[in-house]
Amino acid sequence: MRYSCLLGILVMISAVSAQESPKEILNRFRSAGMKGGDSAAGEKVFRSEKAGCTKCHTTGEKKRLAGPDLNVIGDKFDRNQLIKSVLEPSARIHPDHATVSLVLKSGRVVNGVLKRRTDESVELFDEQGNAQSVSVDDIEEQRGSKTSLMPAGLHKLMDEQQFADLIAWLETKTQPDSDHPGIPSQISSATKSAELKVFADGFDHPVWLTPKPGEHGTWIVVEQKTCKAWQLKQSAGDLTRSVFVDMSSESISGVYEGVMCLAFHPDFEKNGLYYLNHHVREEGVFSPVIVERQATEDRSRDSGRATRRLIRIKQETDLHWGGMLAFGPDNLLYIGAGDGGPQEDPDGHGQNTKTWQGKILRIDVDGRTGDKAYGIPDSNPFVGRTDVLPEIWGLGFRMPWRFSWDNKTNEMWVGDIGQNLFEEVTIARKGGNHGWNVYEGFTHFSDRYRRQGDSYVPPVFSYRRRLGVSVTGGYVYRGTRNSSLTGCYIFGDFETKYIWALRREPSGGVTVRRIAQCPQKPCSFGIDHDGEVFVIGYQGTIYRLVVDGVQFP
Ligand code: HEC
């Protein structure tokens, strides 16, 4: 009796330990994935019907599916990250392939990755990777989702060896070297790096810092998600902050939505006017808007007077919204407008001269043309043409997130975020066609929207996935602390967090060196009244880039 009871307990214990927890299974695959593997066998796994990867992923074929193209995934992710992205798809979601949930009037919910949106319908890839179309009239609400469309548990469709093989194959998917002088294979470090010194922290997703006109030692910091801008004032070594404006009642906010940029009127000290680029959803349509607001008499904060809206750029999706806003050396307002998504610019906005999307626009905030809330400068490159919108200053951009002017040469440097392969740094030209989506960086992308006889302004520099994933445009250094950097463009990458300096050589080539790696994702750069550079860490910290010791060749 006692004996059989004991036996019963033993049987129960062994049954429990034989059943592995999901966590243990994941760990088993994780360690298998680290162990090498046969990449040729891995390709077979990838292409097998059972694993199903090709329902949603291409590897270089020009075809849009639910998931990102994986042709250079070995440059983007190391082995650890590859394993993680297959075992835990929702742990880190590719922003351009995030899932949206459409709540239909019937109560049904359709989840998928956006393929295309028009005024009539929303096309998305469903959980099976198939394209589906939903009529706009049937949609009650569209929401973002934190769950990847890529199914969890794909490893259960294979054994450990096959998983290791699959990872080994993904690791081999890298971009071949290019002999183009503007596309380096590697970027070496400067002999001495710059130091990133914490200047202020505790911000909630800061995306922009700009010096306040006329007040040395005072800056404005814009927070994306809270929709607030803070005044940051330095006096006697102390930093104090106060709310400059709170846009939360006018702006939507979300993972990538909110307030993106702030620009002071060139006569701000006299008229108190300033401008914001932020997001709204009106009539169900997502749009960046450019608005004018006014500060109090003492200019210490917003006056509370009503917003004056200048421009609303309607988009089909809530991706690639540009985000930049700045007055140029000509005192006109330049606006960075993205191609509006979702991927590969399916409607050719970058090349379409009848839409603002995929452009840099230029307007005169003090003027009025016709019934527009702003003026069209006579000097705009396409004024008088009926086939081009008069606001357009430059075209062929994908996501010109940050741009700035070299205060010596007045050239406008743009960091334009790329599609699958290349990030781009370019000097924008008035009336210039910067290529997207005919070109991605220096490289041909698609002829679908190419027009006969068009010519394209090539970038100054373009880098591959091995070096980064999302370019953050910065500033041409004109500070006084390091003469070897004078005239160098300082910029970075949001994902690899590298900070680089680039010099154009008289020969036409470029010299680029890594001068730092930011502890946080650098989403923007800022400039001091003296031309010294700040780096804005998206996780909340603002760093001073101390360049004193850097030795740039
Ligand atoms: C039903 C569609 C679907 C299937 C099937 C699928 N994926 Fe994905 N995958 C996605 C989507 C959508 C994303 C982007 C969202 C994300 O990052 O999770 C993604 C992301 C990825 C990424 C990260 C890519 C990047 O650039 O961030 C990798 C790697 C990947 N998938 C590998 C695989 C492999 C290997 C398989 C087969 C075992 C597979 N996927 C099956 C839809 C799918």
Please provide a written account of the structure:
The chain is about 10% helix and about 35% strand. The chain folds into two domains: about 100-145, Roll (SH3 type barrels), CATH 2.30.30; about 195-205 and about 215-545, Neuraminidase (6 Propeller). Strand 19 (about 400-405) and strand 20 form a beta hairpin. Mean pLDDT is about 95; it is low at about 10-15. The strands form eight sheets. The protein has a five-stranded antiparallel β-sheet, with no helix packed on it. The protein has a four-stranded antiparallel β-sheet with strand order 6-31-30-29, with no helix packed on it. The protein has helices at about 1-20, 20-35, 40-45, 75, 80-85, 160-170, 270; strands at about 100-105, 110-115, 120-125, 130-135, 140-145, 195-200, 205-210, 220-225, 230-235, 240-245, 260-265, 275-280, 285-295, 310, 325, 335, 360-365, 390-395, 400-405, 410-415, 420-430, 440, 445, 460-465, 470-475, 490-495, 500-505, 510-515, 520-525, 535, 540-545. By secondary structure, it is mostly beta strands. Bound molecules: heme C (HEC). Heme C binds near residues 66, 86, 93 and 94.
Tell me the span between the first and last alpha carbons: 86 Å
Name of the CATH first level of the largest domain: Mainly Beta
Oligomer: single chain
Strand content: 25-35%
Bound molecules: heme C
Query: Main sheet?
Result: 5 strands, antiparallel
* CATH architecture assignment name of the largest domain: 6 Propeller
Segments where pLDDT lies below 50 for 5+ residues? 10-16
Radius of gyration, taken over Cα atoms and rounded to an integer in Å: 25 Å
Give the overall shape, derived from the CA principal axes.
globular
Domain count: the total is: 2
Summarize the amount of helix as a percent range.
10-25%
Q: Calculate the mean pLDDT score and round it.
A: 93
Strand arrangement in the largest pleated sheet: 4-3-2-1-5
Number of helices: 7
Category from helices, strands and their pairing = mainly beta
Looking at CATH, the homologous superfamily of the largest domain is TolB, C-terminal domain
- In the CATH hierarchy, the third-tier topology of the largest domain is known as Neuraminidase
